[in-house]
Amino acid sequence: MCFSADGRLAAFRHVLLAIVGMASFGALGCTTSPASKDTAAKSSHGETPAVTQNNLGPGIDLNCVINHIQNPTESFHYTFRDDSPNHWEEEADVTPHTIDGSFANNSLPQPQQFHGTPQEVWSNLGAIRRMASLFAIVRKTSAVVNSGTEHVNGYETTKYSIDTSRGNATEQELYSDVLGKGGFAKGTVWTASQGCLVKLTLDEELHSKDGSVQDKAHYEEAMVRK
After folding, report:
1. Lowest-confidence region among 13-22, 105-114, 203-212
2. What three-state secondary structure class fits 45?
């Protein structure tokens, strides 16, 4: 089964839906799509803000993670967790020949085990896609800062700090339109070559138009090389 739909994202404003329509899932990193489309969104005044673009190298590519699971060339342990009203967690041992894993969510709180070739069962590990829209709005903005290199989980990585409290007036308007006034995303990611996420810890808070908290989420992801 494939988890491309995220019920929690349905609560986002029309601005977020516009971003998703213009930025494909693969456009977060190693793609042929123009980078400018990832951060294009209508402001509350109906204008498209010109977002500052920083030099992030390969950037952050969720599609690369899915490719590593679907067509693995090495063995690694994979985990993903979304602590939110739409809770989800995944865990798997991935090899070039087999995947042994499990997933659980609100409807299936007991871990659901699965086993098979990567091509047969990879879609059971697709929940990381629910972060695509979040990364689309922060990509190449001042929210993302390159913090240098670090050896993490068996990989040489680039470390990025993410904090939507940073940014110029135009960027803050975009974040406010999507996350709500006072809403934020803040955390740290580590990416290997081609922008593949090796480790992630990130908190997201969505606010309603009146400023009240609408939703909270805490994300964690890891690929640990064996």
Report:
1. 13-22
2. coil
